[in-house]
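Aim 2 progress update. The chain analyzed this quarter is reproduced below.
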Amino acid sequence: QLQFVESGGGLVQPGGSLSLSCAASGFTLDYYAVGWFRQAPGKAREEVSCISSSGDSTAYADSVKGRLTISRDNAKNTVNLQMKSLKLEDTAVYYCAAYHGGQCGAMVSESSYNYPAPLLDWDYWGQGTQVTVSS
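Predicted structure tokens:
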């Protein structure tokens, strides 16, 4: 059974840190780029970070640059997202997704061409984990 499961979400105060993890089972992540997306209530799903299949290339949305760090461990079939200096506007459900192309493209957002069609390019999605930033 193919599964892609996120963990590590929770409640954190503004300025705090949180670490998310995404674990794949039933398939190997070795040949997939992996992205982290988020969706806040009433807002479109947007990509915040991506890492290539080899891990030698990463990308971040402007809104999270310098605050989020994506990494992967292909031996463990996992991808992690370290988040620091969290803001109220980071509150959202966070999803990981795998793309067979191996390389990261432009960050997907509501302003992407033909949105939400680019979301369909991603092969596997996790169920999401809630991150709430609140004082």
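The radius of gyration is 14 Å. The mean pLDDT is 95. These observations will guide the mutagenesis experiments scheduled for the next reporting period.
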